[in-house]
Design goal:
By secondary structure, the protein is an alpha+beta fold. The chain has 3 domains: 3-52, Structural Genomics Hypothetical 15.5 Kd Protein In mrcA-pckA Intergenic Region, Chain A; 62-124 and 210-232, 2-Layer Sandwich (Alpha-Beta Plaits), CATH 3.30.70.580; 129-207, Alpha-Beta Plaits (2-Layer Sandwich). The protein has 6 helices and 15 strands. It has helices spanning 3-9, 15-23, 115-122, 146-150, 187-194, 225-232; strands spanning 27-29, 32-33, 46-48, 51-52, 62-67, 96-97, 106-112, 130-137, 153-154, 157-158, 163-169, 173-180, 199-207, 210-211, 220-222. Strand 3 and strand 4 (51-52) form a beta hairpin. It starts with a helix and ends with a helix.
Amino acid sequence: MRINKFLADMGVASRRGADEMISAGRVQINGVTATLGATVEETDEVFLDGKKLVREEKKEEYYIMNKPKGVVCTVSDDRGRKTVIDLLPEGVGRVFPVGRLDYATEGLLILTNDGELTNRLTHPANDIPKTYLARIEGTLTEKDLNPIRSGIELDGVLTKKCKAHIVETNKAYTKVHVTITEGRNRQVRRMFEAIGRNVEFLKRISIGQLKLTGLDRGECRPLKENEIEYLKGL
């Protein structure tokens, strides 16, 4: 088993988070600093920050949160900022966020210790649709959204085709629903920046058919069984 999958299965972090830990030299296998792509066997001893990881019977936990802006999507933050883990109620086990919403973005976030589900929802090959409500400064027309829909070049690579339509407009701002199937860094904001538009407010409102309803900013609740099964089927 690859070391990043082992760490994800242990509930330590997502696979991407595990890779960051490995790159930082925080993980050892049998006393030797692990490298990206290393594998482990049942008889191997794995250490994180000098502490041996012991496989225990893991209860899988799943939560949905309405992340407020001004909170980071990490388990801990070396700059002392509030994290999404700080917003969880007492009694929640060791879970981690599935993907990331940037510091200024709010909305639907899933937290779990299920490494396989995390990988399914974040792997770019799976094309999981995620819908955002973006408030854009000034007036936009449907025609203005065509470059967004067809693909914007970011870091030398075109974004995948996406859906975008106006839900409200006036002289001050335009509200747009944007559905993307990628998770590139600050993607929605950067797509609008590329066409000369400023995103004043951004909120993720759904992942697939799972919608953010009934939760105030900063609140979370356990996912229902039918919601968990739905996400596993995406």
